[in-house]
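Severity: low
Component: inverse-folding endpoint
Summary: output formatting inconsistent between runs
Steps to reproduce: submit the following structure tokens with default settings.
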């Protein structure tokens, strides 16, 4: 459920007509609903309630906007971060350092130091050498890093290859059969409090079976590690729950997921960590855009909008579907291709799709754009960096400015030897 609904013929975000935001802020612009964010945070928390002791670390890569993080911090969420920049954001948004989990396959020494100095709560170690280096840095500071070992359970999550992470050929985690020996060696190091294991098998998952299979394997690993004498008090189950990008899609709900987790983790006696991203923010955002032209095409007309692949990369990168809807639909439909102004054919959002009839100057939205939308934006084709707005009831605020192409140009220089 989201708060982007038609009222008196105009699409609103909560109480605010999107026409008003377009007029005030311009397009393209991402629009988030605070009420939807809060609702999703609540639904996920309720869904996992049956599992017992748990901690939710929002995967901030999916939407790192500070206002979004602040909403989730107020909901008691921590953060799953993957870079020094994300650590800074989580803290700047008001998240407690101890509620921050540091994931990522390529953490640099500088980032490990920053994380230690910040006092973050958990490092998810991706390879043995990283654990050794982390232990050394922590010991040299007279600190102990709280950590888990990320394992690769070798299951096929059944999602797009580019967002699948739990197969043995993927770059993430240590092979599950090598985990006991690596854990044993790392657990002996001063500077490290290795207290559990972590996994994450992929994103936009529609089938709970691969997750259940992966969790069952990890459960066996936990039993084996305990039998070796290791104390295990937390298991990080990652993120990945899918969202409906089309109204016909029906992914498992957080409640379905929570029940599965409760069943498979029964008797684990460990704090369970969750790292949801998309399921919290996906449907809490739309990308508001304006139709520049409707260009006749050989087969279907091209609706050329002012948003492009640099603003919303998912269709070009993963052939992803985002529903397209007119802000003031007139009830008529058309079959069209939808594309942005960027100069490559990959800058296409849809081909031969039945959509609301739109004409030049009309406003429209791409739905379900709150996750992996603005955060993956670029300035390709020297386009401005897309701004973000958050709606709260009848009010809204610009929560990220449009960064003008001129501002970006001002950060570049021609060296004297080229003048
Ligand atoms: N934890 C870890 C370690 C992750 O790598 C990810 C996502 C998550 C949690 C959150 O997963 P979620 O709940 O959002 O599925 N840009 C792609 C998605 C990349 C996901 C990367 N990792 C897309 O637009 O579909």
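Observed output (run 2 of 3):
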């Amino acid at each position: 459920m989201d708060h982007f609904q038609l009222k008196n013929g105009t699409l609103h975000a909560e109480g605010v007509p999107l026409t008003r935001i377009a007029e005030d802020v311009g397009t393209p612009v991402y629009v988030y609903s605070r009420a939807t964010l809060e609702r999703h945070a609540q639904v996920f928390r309720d869904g996992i309630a049956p599992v017992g002791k748990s901690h939710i670390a929002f995967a901030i890569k999916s939407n790192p906007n500070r206002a979004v993080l602040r909403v989730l911090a107020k909901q008691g969420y921590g953060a799953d971060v993957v870079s020094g920049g994300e650590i800074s954001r989580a803290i700047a948004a008001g998240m407690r350092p101890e509620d921050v989990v540091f994931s990522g396959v390529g953490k640099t020494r500088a980032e490990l130091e920053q994380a230690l100095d910040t006092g973050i709560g958990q490092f998810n170690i991706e390879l043995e050498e990283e654990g050794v280096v982390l232990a050394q840095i922590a010991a040299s500071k007279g600190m102990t890093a709280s950590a888990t070992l990320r394992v690769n359970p070798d299951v096929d999550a059944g999602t797009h290859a580019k967002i699948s992470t739990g197969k043995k050929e993927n770059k993430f985690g240590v092979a599950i059969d090598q985990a006991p020996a690596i854990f044993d060696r790392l657990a002996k190091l001063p500077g490290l409090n290795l207290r559990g294991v972590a996994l994450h098998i992929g994103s936009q998952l529609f089938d709970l079976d691969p997750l259940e299979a992966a969790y069952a394997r990890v459960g066996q690993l936990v039993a084996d590690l305990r039998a070796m004498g290791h104390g295990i008090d937390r298991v990080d189950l990652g993120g990945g729950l899918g969202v409906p990008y089309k109204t016909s899609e029906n992914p498992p709900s957080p409640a379905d997921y929570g029940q599965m987790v409760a069943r498979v983790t029964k008797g684990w006696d460990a704090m369970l960590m969750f790292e949801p991203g998309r399921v919290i923010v996906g449907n809490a955002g739309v990308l508001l855009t304006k139709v520049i032209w409707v260009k006749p095409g050989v087969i279907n007309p091209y609706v050329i909008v002012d948003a492009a692949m640099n603003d919303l990369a998912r269709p070009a990168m993963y052939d992803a579907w985002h529903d397209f809807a007119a802000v003031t639909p007139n009830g008529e439909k058309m079959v069209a291709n939808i594309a942005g102004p960027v100069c490559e054919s990959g800058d296409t959002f849809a081909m031969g799709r039945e959509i609301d009839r739109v004409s030049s100057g009309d406003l429209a939205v791409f739905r379900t754009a709150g996750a992996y939308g603005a955060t993956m934006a670029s300035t390709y084709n020297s386009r401005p960096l897309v701004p973000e707005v958050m709606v709260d009831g009848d009010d809204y605020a610009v929560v990220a400015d449009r960064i003008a192409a001129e501002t970006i140009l001002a950060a570049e220089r021609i060296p004297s030897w080229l003048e």
